[in-house]
Amino acid sequence: MRRNLVVGNWKMKINHQSAQELVDGLIAGMPAVDADIAVCPPFLYIPEVSQRLANTSISWGAQNVATHIEGAYTGEIAAVMLKDFNCKYAIVGHSERRANYADTDITVAQRFQQAIDAGIIPVLAIGELLEDREQGRTFDVVAKQLNAVIDFAGIDSFQNAVIAYEPVWAIGTGKTASAEQAQEVHLYIRQLLAEKNQQIAENMQILYGGSVKPQNAEALFAMPDIDGALVGGDSLSADSFLKIYSSFQK
Ligand code: PEP
Known about the structure:
The relative contact order is 0.16. Helix 1 packs parallel to helix 11 and helix 7 (138-153) runs parallel beside helix 8. The protein has an eight-stranded parallel β-barrel with strand order 1-2-3-4-5-6-7-8, surrounded by six helices. The chain contains eleven helices and eight strands. The longest helix has 18 residues, at 179-196. By secondary structure, it is α/β, with parallel strands linked by helices. The two termini are 18 Å apart. It has a single domain, classed as Alpha-Beta Barrel (TIM Barrel), CATH 3.20.20.70. It binds phosphoenolpyruvate (PEP). Phosphoenolpyruvate (PEP) binds next to strand 8.
């Protein structure tokens, strides 16, 4: 049976003070929900956030991970460094990195592999642009992005991975995919995995991301192939993020 999961992506929208307040708010307000929850602060705040969250049921992760294990890669953070701070997750392939930092299917696959090798669960973000959707290419784009990682890292590595379907047109725009639109793609992703390995497909946590809020989380989570959410904007408020998390109960 798959467990549900919400992951907060704080992006570069927080500072030292507000990160502390947010963590304290999450700890103070944690409801008793039988599902997993994690936050992904900017790298710099991971040591402190990890200390505050130790011995709580909230996990933490990173927003990206380097393509290589070590070496002359100025400004990069290796998976093994994240492991030193007990990161459970690392987001790889977020559309903002694909669009603004030239991440390609290959570099995303390398990041995915680095996370796996370090014992970190990659949260592989995939999703189509608005023009892809309008031109009927959603499934093709999602399949290309996913297959690139399967071909590189092997299907077995997906035993320890999470997939986040994030239609780019829904990220930070306030436009959410309808629960039905998201479900259709989640089912497609699960079927793609099933062609390679039935068990991995059944166990895969497939998160939806794109303007998830307390107001739409319940409808999304009611869908059979939506196992949680990757949340940007609404993960910056403890109240909103915990309301989204609590939507699993309903
Ligand atoms: C994201 O950054 O992955 C995301 C889904 O952002 P938002 O929730 O703000 O759309």
